[in-house]
C-alpha cells in the first residue's frame, strides 16, 4: 500500500502513468510529487510506485 493525496491506495507496482490513467487524471494537467520530489512528466511512464511511497497529485485549475 501507498498513500496518494493522504489516502491509502493499492497502486504499488504500477507506473505513475498507469496510476494516473486508472484514477481518471489527465497527465497533461497534473503535477506528481513522489516522496517530496516532483516527477518530471517525461518520467511518468517509467517511474514505478512502491509500497510505502507518498504521492501527491496536484491538478491545475483555471479561473479568473
Apparent shape: globular
Q: What is the overall number of helices? A: 1
Strand tally, please? 5
Radius of gyration: 11 Å
The mean pLDDT is 94
Oligomer: single chain
Main beta-sheet annotation: 5 strands, mixed
Sequence stretches where pLDDT stays below 50 over 5 or more residues = none
The portion of residues assigned to helices is 10-25%
Order of helices and strands: EEHEEE
Query: Strand portion, in percent?
Result: 25-35%
Largest sheet, spatial ordering of strands = 2-1-5-3-4
Task: Provide an overview of this structure.
The protein has 64 residues and is mainly beta. Helices cover 11% and strands 31% of the residues. The protein has 1 helix and 5 strands; from the N terminus they run ββαβββ. It has one helix spanning 16-22; strands at 2-4, 7-9, 30-34, 37-39, 54-59. A hairpin with a 2-residue loop joins strand 3 (30-34) and strand 4 (37-39). The protein is globular, with a radius of gyration of 11 Å. The model has no long low-confidence stretch (mean pLDDT 94).
